[in-house]
Amino acid sequence: MTEAESRDLTPGEYLREIQMEFLGEMQQRIDDLEQIWLSLKSGWRLPALEDLHRLAHSLHGEGATFGFDAVAGAAHALESVLKPLRDEGDVPEEQIADSVERQISALRRASLRYSADRLPPLPGRFDGIPKPPQEAAGRVVLVDDDRDLASAIGLQLRHYGYTVEVFVDPDSAEQSIRERPPAAVLMDVVFEGDHLAGTELVRRLHDSVEDPPPILFLSSRSDLEARLHAIRAGGKGYLTKPVDLANLAERLDRITGRKTERPYEVLIVDDDEKQARYTARILQEADVHTTVLTDPLRLLDSVSEIRPDLLLLDLYMPDCSGPELAEVLRQHEMWLPIPIVFLSSETNPDEQIQALSRGGDEFLTKPVDPETLVATVLPRARRGRQLGSLIELDGLTGLINHSQHQQRLHQEVRRAGRESSSLAFAMIDLDDFKSVNDTWGHAVGDRVLRSLAGMLKKRLRSTDIVARYGGDEFAVLMPSTEGRPAAGLMEELCLAFGQLSHSIGDNQFHVSLSCGVASFPEYADSESLAAAADRALYEVKEAGKSGVRLADADIV
Questions:
Q1: The whole model's pTM is what?
Q2: H or E element in which residue 216 lies
Q3: Which of 184, 215, 272, 415 places its Cα 20 to 30 Å from the Cα of 553?
């Protein structure tokens, strides 16, 4: 079954397919286990004993996960006999050897209970897996009796992906909200004749509407009375005019649950491919992106390339154990924020504690309920990303910083080379940014930088990599994108940003952008790719600024 075919199956259908795979392999795996034991009887070898224990452990874990309880129980009993032998490494006494043979025979008998006509019930429930919030429809109702200001805000929010419906009359707005609830409401506080009319309207909505939309207040009032009324009415936030559009867009994203971040990335390291695929499918139901690694010795390369938010590790694997991998990873300072969760059928508390002491954060015992797995992974992945951000992100814009960008550039060029795919790289510079700081002050300049960062994050794909390159320069990596489409996209983005109004008091101003674009494989390594984009940016600046140039091509 291909990965594309598996995505068309429900979780239950997918689990049934894996059950059939496990059933088809079960007798051969027990044969392999028996052959290893017979070879040990003729010559005691610790590596073979470790293989034997690992096979029993794998049958225990898979049997429990996929509902073959009789096989899981018999394999666990065999595993319990083998573990002391593995730890001590001595040739077993005859009584112990007889016990091993009895347990293998019991495992064989247990396996015969099952056939294609006698599959066990599907274990686990999938209906409790938390689903990610759906992206908001983007319709926002703005209620403000200053039509010109409201229209200007609505126009600006379009660049952040929102459609804004403006009302100057609170009663008309209330009727529209009741008939067709929007993703959010932006409400002024003061209307003619009533200095708290906006909060009263919101209070009525909260008292009479079963599921009122989230509401942000916008007001020229900054006093405590107005803020208290807004809170008591059920407002989700309070912004004073003139409004910082980037901040307003961020608040809207937050209160509407609009998805703006890329999915969490989890790396699953398990030599048992079926178990790993099953775990991956559970997490995918919760919109987590997963990568399965069955060769544990490739861990460092995979972590460097994938940059996971969380690592799921099996305990017993060939060549090295899960706790050993955790120790190795913890020796690398840049990977310290990555949470490590062990996922194993090991039930011995001492073994679990020992594993955690070597770098783990959590231990889950197979079979793990799908809802429990997701509930464990999501908050730890979120925290892992937050901790990683302290190291990787620029404090002002929330984008990755220069050093992290350089690493990602090298990684993406190598990936594009391996996959024979395209990669576009854009360098963006704010035109005459020094004059913004000189004229309006550095605090206003910082707001402009944050506005550009916010627009880049919202208008580009989650797979695109955006960085603050330094000062007023930004860089964008666009995987699987050729040069001309990338340059066209940058042209649209530059035009949109140039139309944004930046406010300071009653004054407004605009800032234009210049951009240079280069692409792989036209430029075959990271150094030449970055240099070509930088040259194209310089050419735009020399030609009068405010434009986009594709390296070695005409201005777009």
A1: 0.57
A2: strand 215-219
A3: 415
